[in-house]
Specification:
This protein is an alpha+beta fold. The chain is built from 13 helices and 24 strands. The strands form five sheets. The chain has a nine-stranded antiparallel beta sheet with strand order 8-7-6-5-4-3-2-1-9, with no helix packed on it. A nine-stranded antiparallel beta sheet has the order 21-20-19-18-17-16-15-14-22. The longest helix has about 30 residues. The chain starts with a helix and ends in a 6-residue tail after the last helix. The mean pLDDT is about 85.
């Protein structure tokens, strides 16, 4: 008994996970119809063949009296009660584990193997008893064999009680089976309903797709929400949709999970996910996250399949583990601690002001002719595109837009540097309030008509380029348009060396140089060694004077203009 219960408890620990409140029983998100039919029959057989609970019910029905004491000297009512309780517990526990293993199976073969394994474990006590009675447990001595033979051969008369309560006995047995069948099948139906409704699926998924083969694919990245009603319901696989219309759903005909973009004038019931831009390898999984490590492909405009260079899929359901160590989960989203930012609180707070590296002013970003893009940019407060801040060339006290108003905008994989003139939809937008509303509610990287003069290198999640949520540590290229008029980097031209730094001081994350003081407007006051600039980044006239000044012994100042040999 103890050996059998030890196996049960080890098994129960292994097949459950109470740290996951959404799926503590490790149930599959869904299964095919043949598996569900097999589950039903397997549970019925498990209930019928489970004799421990039935024996306990029979013993309770027959009761305890002198006949039992005469047959088994030393028997007491307490021992009799404990034996029945332990037998019933063993039987019910084994039956629950059997049914749970049946429900955890994702195919018929696994279901049958799990069922047979539990049937074997449930019979271990009977097998050991037979071995003891036949003398095969010789190392325990003859005493065990004699006790086993005594228990096996001893019987006592309950016929008198049975005749008096034959109807009651039948009633008790029937009630036992009715209760057991009802409770088990209510649990089975409840699990099936939860599976069909997506209860065990992740409710929020973050997806990011490489755009090298198909430029618009990067703008179909972001946070996708579970759709309770699947596209083409008959396949019983629920899809995900983001707030810009992109859809992750299952194509039944091709047996693939796909990324598509339904047309605005097509209802969900009429749209087929088989009209896709990117798709997984063939899969019959009910959970798109299972394809996160498999190869996805892109279908180009010429219907050629190309392997997708970057594909990221992860569950972003709010949990303390997701938000840790810089935040906590509250009301379904990560509440970040002071100075933190992002869906997972993974980034430092975005810089409020960006400024071009001073020695690069002569290069800059050329706009048209001899004009240049601005060298300073300010965060547009409380505005995001693709979960990253927007920056404009308007200062803190400027609110009016012009055609020369410049901005940095993230489009899912890349940053772009553009201006109002290159956004036709901004023609009548003349102030920052309406500009903020536009980027909050109307901008879609894949369908908005816009252009840009420069695009950054890809910023793939959890890579070095993704260390900052602002465009501070990215490299830039000239932009171009492909045959479908989609914005892409011009790989025929070299990288642009111009870069930006955070020009807003903060004692915790971006302090002023030694000796300088962070002022209330975010600039540094009292710059050392006659340096100047918002962050004391402009070196003094004494730089490159043949003497190594440790204040400027860093890459920003060219290691004191070359005066410092060691760095």
């Amino acid at each position: 008994f103890l050996f059998q219960m030890a196996i049960y408890f080890i098994l129960a620990y292994d097949i459950t996970n109470f740290r996951n409140p959404k799926n503590r029983l490790k149930l599959p998100v869904n299964v095919e119809i043949p598996v569900r039919i097999a589950e039903c029959f397997a549970i019925m057989v498990a209930i019928i063949t489970q004799d421990e609970v039935g024996t306990a019910v029979t013993l309770i029905r027959d009761g305890f009296d002198e006949d039992l004491v005469e047959a088994f000297p030393g028997a007491t009512k307490a021992k009799w009660g404990w034996s029945i309780a332990l037998r019933a517990f063993e039987g019910l526990f084994g039956l629950l584990l059997t049914c749970l293993l049946i429900m955890q199976s994702t195919n018929v073969l696994d279901l049958l193997l799990n069922f047979l394994a539990m049937e074997f474990v449930s019979k271990l006590d009977d097998v050991v008893f037979v071995l003891a009675r036949e003398g095969f447990l010789g190392f325990l001595g003859c005493v065990v064999q004699k006790e086993a033979e005594n228990v096996s051969d001893t019987c006592y008369d309950v016929s008198q009680r049975s005749r008096k309560s034959r109807k009651n006995a039948t009633c008790v047995t029937n009630v036992y089976f009715i209760i057991l069948f009802t409770s088990m099948f209510i649990g089975w139906v409840w699990i099936c309903v939860n599976q069909d409704s997506g209860m065990y699926l992740c409710s929020k998924i973050f997806a990011q797709h490489g755009d090298e083969a198909l430029p618009m694919l990067g703008s179909m990245s972001g946070l996708f929400l579970l759709q309770k009603q699947s596209f083409h319901r008959r396949n019983r696989r629920l899809g995900y949709k983001d707030n810009r219309g992109s859809l992750l759903a299952y194509c039944e005909k091709q047996k693939r999970w796909t990324l598509s973009l339904p047309k605005d004038d097509v209802s969900p019931d009429d749209w087929t996910p088989c009209n896709w831009y990117a798709a997984s390898s063939e899969s019959e999984d009910f959970d798109v996250l299972k394809t996160a490590t498999s190869q996805w492909v892109v279908k180009t405009s010429t219907n050629i399949f190309v392997p997708l260079s970057q594909h990221f899929l992860a569950c972003y359901d709010c949990t303390d583990n997701l938000c840790a160590p810089h935040g906590s989960c509250k009301e379904g989203k990560c509440m970040c601690g002071e100075g933190r930012y992002g869906l997972r609180c993974e980034y430092p707070e975005p810089c409020q002001r960006l400024e071009m590296e001073i020695e690069q002013h002569d290069e800059g970003f050329v706009k048209t002719g001899e004009s240049y893009f601005a060298s300073k940019y300010y965060r547009l407060q409380d505005v995001e595109t693709y979960n990253r801040p927007v920056y404009t060339s308007l200062g803190d006290n400027e609110t009016s837009l012009s055609d020369d108003t410049d901005f940095f905008v993230f489009t899912g994989v890349r940053w772009i540097l553009s201006c109002r003139r290159l956004f036709p939809e901004l023609k009548d937008v003349n102030d920052t309030t309406r500009l903020a509303e536009y980027f909050k509610t109307q901008f879609r990287g894949h369908s908005t008509k816009y252009s840009a003069s420069y695009v950054s290198e890809p910023v793939y999640i959890d890579t070095p380029a993704d260390a900052k949520v602002s465009p501070l540590n990215v490299r830039w290229r000239y932009s171009a348009l492909d045959n479908d008029q989609q914005l892409r980097p011009d790989l025929q031209k070299g990288l642009i060396e111009t870069s930006f730094f955070c020009a807003y001081c903060d004692e915790g994350t971006n302090p002023c140089p030694q000796g300088a003081v962070c002022l209330s407007d975010g600039t540094c006051g009292g710059c050392p060694k006659d340096s100047s600039g918002t962050m004391c980044q402009i070196p003094s006239k004494f730089i490159s004077n043949g003497q190594c000044d440790l204040q400027f012994n860093n890459i920003t100042f060219g290691f004191d203009g070359g005066d410092c040999c060691e760095n």
